[in-house]
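F.,

This is the one I mentioned.
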């Protein structure tokens, strides 16, 4: 008699059914987990990533292939820059860590760089954990772990993550290092790219915290990570300390939600499957059975973004205009609702969003010399009618 199925094995079996027969699970990486944190309300991405579905293959099968991903040129440039930063045993990298994060420690004249090679991701994960423990116990030394392997539990299965580097300080604390090829111009970088890097680093921080929790006493995992980028238009490295506590908290909440994806799976119609080999009509019905929360930011983070954008535009959803616009419009969820409220045809006049839209419509009509919506001018309403718009 087979052993009784536990909650964890039942969930894995259900996720395998959603992927399709004989379809291998696509491993989650830090970029995918960071993208989940960037859009925590999207059930579609949560279930597809949790089930290990190849979203790129699904997008192509739906007729909306995505250009999401790094170009070969950017990949090669990034590898060359990372090699430069880590040259000479990571001397420049450790100098930046000391300068930006730990000026009170002894300067890193030399550092230990343990060998982390092992067979398979499980072996590398175990070897990394051992190296971290040994480095923490050897107080007073700097240690650089080059491409360590970490494991993070996601929906009952381990996701293997590979940060660019982890530094163990002389006091035994740990720091995540992210090396990116986008430039820092005059000491600052593209906020969107920095935000994406911070979310990715927060995933590594969470994984490191799980490793640290198994040690006694548990070492401190620093919540300020080091972001290393090219300086201005050169290939010289510069760095900035980035506090990822907010991103860490968001990611932790999203992962906690992701571990309950059985709730999403239970709400799906019987027989739902996301196998890219299904007929397009069946695959489309399966994908559309899970609600999505599209925003323009998805275009740089999700392979299904073009499909979701087309559906969002077709339904007139205001989320296609951006999260900021959606947040300002309150209960008005479609473009038609917004236009109707602005024209005075619908909506509660006491709703702040409706009132603001009608004031904006009146001001626009006055500027263009057109009749105001509803035949009422802002002058007739008095100066208080336009005061909030100033």
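My design for it:
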């Amino acid at each position: 008699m087979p052993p009784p199925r536990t909650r964890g094995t039942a969930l894995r079996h259900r996720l395998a059914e959603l992927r399709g027969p004989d379809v291998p699970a696509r491993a989650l990486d830090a970029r995918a987990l960071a993208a989940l944190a960037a859009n925590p309300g999207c059930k579609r991405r949560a279930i597809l990533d949790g089930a290990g579905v190849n979203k790129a293959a699904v997008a192509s099968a739906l007729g909306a292939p995505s250009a999401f991903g790094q170009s070969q040129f950017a990949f090669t440039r990034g590898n060359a820059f990372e090699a430069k930063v880590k040259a000479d045993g990571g001397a420049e990298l450790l100098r930046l860590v000391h300068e930006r994060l730990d000026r009170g420690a002894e300067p890193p004249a030399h550092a230990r760089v343990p060998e982390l090679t092992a067979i398979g991701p499980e072996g590398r994960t175990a070897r990394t954990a051992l190296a971290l423990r040994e480095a923490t116990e050897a107080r007073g030394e700097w240690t650089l772990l080059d491409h360590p392997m970490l494991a993070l539990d996601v929906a009952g299965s381990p996701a293997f993550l590979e940060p660019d580097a982890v530094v163990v300080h002389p006091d035994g604390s740990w720091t995540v290092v992210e090396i990116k090829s986008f430039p820092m111009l005059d000491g600052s970088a593209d906020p969107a790219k920095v935000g994406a890097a911070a979310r990715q680093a927060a995933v590594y921080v969470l994984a490191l915290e799980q490793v640290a929790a198994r040690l006694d006493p548990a070492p401190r995992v620093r919540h300020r990570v080091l972001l290393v980028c090219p300086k201005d238009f050169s290939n010289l490295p510069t760095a900035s300390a980035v506090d990822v506590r907010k991103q860490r908290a968001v990611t932790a909440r999203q992962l906690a939600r992701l571990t309950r994806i059985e709730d999403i799976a239970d709400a799906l119609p019987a027989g739902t499957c996301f196998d890219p080999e299904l007929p397009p009509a069946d695959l489309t019905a399966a994908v559309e059975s899970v609600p999505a929360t599209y925003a323009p930011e998805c275009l740089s983070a999700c392979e299904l973004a073009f499909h979701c954008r087309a559906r969002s535009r077709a339904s007139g959803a205001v989320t296609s205009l951006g999260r900021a616009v959606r947040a300002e419009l309150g209960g008005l969820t479609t473009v038609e609702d917004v236009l109707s409220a602005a024209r005075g045809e619908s909506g509660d006049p006491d709703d702040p969003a409706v009132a603001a839209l009608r004031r904006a419509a009146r001001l626009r009509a006055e500027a263009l010399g057109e009749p105001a919506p509803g035949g009422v001018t802002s002058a007739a309403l008095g100066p208080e009618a336009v005061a909030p718009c100033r």
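Confidence is low (pLDDT under 50) at residues 1-6, 375-390.

Talk soon.
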